[in-house]
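Beta-lactamase (Salinispora tropica), 358 aa
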Amino acid sequence: MPESSVLADIPAAVARAAETDGFSGVVLIRRGEDTLHSCVTGLAQRAWQVPHTLDTRFRVASVSKMFTAVGVLQLVERGLLDLDAPIVELLDLAETTISAQVTVRQLLTMTGGIADWFDETGDWEATWAELLRTHPVYLLRRNADYLPLFADKPARFPPGERHEYNGASYILLGMLIEQLTMAPFAEHLREHVFGPAAMTDTDLLPLEADAPRVADGYVPARDGTGAITGWTRNIYATTPEPAADGGATATAADLIAFTQALRAGALLPDQAVAEMLAPRVAEREEKVRGYLWRYGYGVMSILDDDGTVIRWGHTGEEDGVSTRLYHYPSLNIDVAICANTSWSAGKLAWNIHDLLLP
């Protein structure tokens, strides 16, 4: 268990993140049902100066990929799906450029080589701004709405060759869940993921929803030095509804409830959980911060040189959203960091990591 002095240093780290990166949100650290630390800073709604609380609900961006992965693996457990089945045989993709060799397993690990609906491999901000200029993003309401953005693009590489982060893979997985269950994607997650995990404050909400305790998202305006000079709402800068590759709304407590329910077998049998969490493919070729980086089924892991998993979970970033959800096996600790300001949780998450594992 971290020393109390270590936990006592976290508020200072949060304050620095607020000062330098515009962090505005919640930090929650738990072991089981015991809250080791909680911290709240900033505003859920800036115009009326509404402060965050521990019950604030945030969009969590790509952290939602973990929910989609669980939904897919549940269908495998029900005998409705084979992970090695080609996705073109399960969905109507014959007239697309998606290879007949791309499997469901490869979509889960992002090794299928398919084009993405939004290319995150280059200048993220420039590419996103170009998409906003050239495509009516407000029309992206269902998983199928994303298909025209990538279905006819050339493949990035042959199936199975390597990993490349890819949201379109999870869009296809969401469509697959809908196809096999004959139910809307959101309905399936509510019944089979959020419900069993007791995630009572989690849902797939449109951006315009009049839902209680949901934080508005904010994008920083910066001067020539990079200093934050103001904020704008993200209403024209992000997708209007969640999809299978991201965008659920949750509290920090619900995110931790998810990781705990997953480990406890409330969502999948133990063997399936082990399969999901297994670090399968290299997310990065080189070490970063001294760790090996691996991707499983909707799960990011960092490992030491002996192959021991130090931390697993997922990141989430979009304009007006910055999220981290991590489990530390050796400490049996869960960390959830939720912010309603762009790109503000990452450095803070590493600062907390360094405090937990000095």
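The chain has one domain: 4-356. The chain has a mean pLDDT of 96. ok done for today
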